[in-house]
Amino acid sequence: MLNFLSWLYFFSVTIMNMFGEQRKIWYGSGIIENNLKLTEQTFRLTLTVPGTLPTVNAGQFVMLRLPNRTNPLLGRPFAVYRVSGNVLEVIYVVVGKMTEHLAKMRTGDTLDLWTPLGNGFSTVNTATHIIMVAGGIGQTPFLMLAEKYVQTDSHCTLLYGTQNIERVIGMDDFKKLGVDIHLATDDGSCNKDFVSHHGFVTDLISKVYQLGEPTQIFCCGPRPMLHAAFQIAQQFNLPCEVSLETSMSCGLGICFGCVVKCRCEKENKLDNDNDNNHDHETWDYRRTCIEGPVFDAYKLCW
Ligand SMILES: Cc1cc2nc3c(=O)[nH]c(=O)nc-3n(C[C@H](O)[C@H](O)[C@H](O)COP(=O)(O)OP(=O)(O)OC[C@H]3O[C@@H](n4cnc5c(N)ncnc54)[C@H](O)[C@@H]3O)c2cc1C
Ligand code: FES
């Protein structure tokens, strides 16, 4: 059974590499270099792989799977926090079966992984102010995005909301890049080093946005937060990309287990003829692992 699963993943990855979009997906076994506990429930996992990893773009993700186990059977998606050569970092929070196992793993243990997956954030645009809105563990894809944008001299702001200040992770990494950091906590706890707000992280968007300044909003976190951020972006008519944390099985576009409803143009008159609300528009499913996880917020069916 296990061999069959490994072969199935290997086969899928090979097919993807041969016929899919022209990109290389690395599949194999990674060795845990470090699995550092950062807070009560959050860990930083550093993996090394044989050879060199392909280029990973900000917002792309890795699937991790426990080898030689059928419970949990499937891999789980995690944003790539940082990658260099043959070293890949992920920050994860313990929420269920797989992450509970991960938290118990030690240096030298192995994990199956395949990466890079998904589309990633857009990194070419005319905005001079980049506002990244993160909730919970949603800051993880933003370190690589900030790295990209600080090189273009864009003003980068991170708005980061958590339940309390103990759950704020990775701010030193963002600070080193010169990112302007604003925190929001549900309970009002704060850190003297950063501007802190008692309330929703989305309250901060209108505070940091300068009317008229070309601005791009990127969001990652729980869906209600993404929706709230999108509504504010809409008010100011700002471009907005959101990264979804949809459950996944294969991560390769094969199982269709990760679909979300997106708006699209009607291809012909017969498409959804009963839908009288929009003349030219209809909806269809899109796979989060292939066409996402990053979506133009204006194209999602909220
Ligand atoms: C593109 C992408 C990037 C991501 N990046 C990150 C990241 O960087 N860091 C990170 O920590 N996470 C990230 N996630 C989320 C991560 O994939 C999930 O947290 C992970 O799959 C959880 O796996 P698990 O086996 O530990 O939890 P599971 O056991 O699969 O549980 C998943 C969820 O279901 C809930 N649940 C479990 N059992 C039950 C039950 N019996 N009844 C009700 N609810 C239940 C859990 O509380 C949890 O919220 C990302 C997801 C995506 C799609
Ligand atoms: S997870 Fe299988 S198609 Fe997306």
Distinct bound molecules:
flavin-adenine dinucleotide, FE2/S2 (inorganic) cluster
Strand percent estimate:
25-35%
Number of helices: 6
The overall number of domains is 3
* CATH fold call of the largest domain: Rossmann fold
Distance between the termini: 39 Å
Shape: globular
CATH class of the largest domain: Alpha Beta
Q: Find the CATH superfamily of the largest domain.
A: Nucleotide-binding domain of ferredoxin-NADP reductase (FNR) module
Describe the secondary-structure layout:
Blueprint: H1 2-19, E1 26-37, E2 42-48, E3 61-65, E4 76-79, E5 82-84, E6 87-93, H2 97-104, E7 110-117, E8 129-135, H3 142-150, E9 155-162, H4 171-176, E10 180-185, E11 195-198, H5 205-208, E12 215-220, H6 223-235, E13 240-243, E14 259-265, E15 281-287, E16 294-296
Parallel strand pairs: 8-9, 8-12, 9-10, 10-11, 12-13
Antiparallel strand pairs: 1-2, 1-7, 2-6, 3-4, 3-7, 5-6, 13-16, 14-15
The structure holds flavin-adenine dinucleotide and FE2/S2 (inorganic) cluster (FES).
Residues 248-251, 253-258, 287, 289 line the site of FE2/S2 (inorganic) cluster.
Question: Which key terms come to mind for this protein?
Answer:
7-stranded antiparallel sheet, Rossmann fold, 3 domains, 302 residues, 7-stranded mixed sheet, binds FE2/S2 (inorganic) cluster, 19% helix, binds flavin-adenine dinucleotide, 6 helices, alpha/beta, 16 strands, Elongation Factor Tu (Ef-tu), domain 3
